[in-house]
Design brief:
Elements: H1 6-21, H2 23-53, H3 76-83
């Protein structure tokens, strides 16, 4: 229990190399991560302002598509019922 196996030494060596040898890589990676978070927050704020400027609608309401004049919304089953 007191001794470390070769696998433990290998993992320790890799961790030490990353911490001490790859300092620039880690800080660059964290900087890229921070830029991604800032970009995400900015886009979320843009989405909220875009939905706030739209006309207020009831939740779950879907606007009907633009219809041509003279368009009738009767279905074939309605037409069939009216003919019988």
């Amino acid at each position: 229990m007191g001794s470390m196996s070769p696998v433990h030494w290998l993992i320790l060596a890799v961790v030490l190399l990353v911490v001490f040898g790859g300092g620039g890589k880690i800080s660059g990676l964290m900087g890229d991560f921070a830029k991604g978070i800032k970009s995400f927050k900015k886009n979320m704020a843009d989405d909220e302002s875009m939905t706030a400027s739209d006309a207020p609608q009831a939740p779950g309401h879907i606007s009907p598509p633009n219809q041509n004049p003279g368009y009738s919304q009767t279905t074939s089953s309605d037409t069939h019922r009216n003919q019988v």
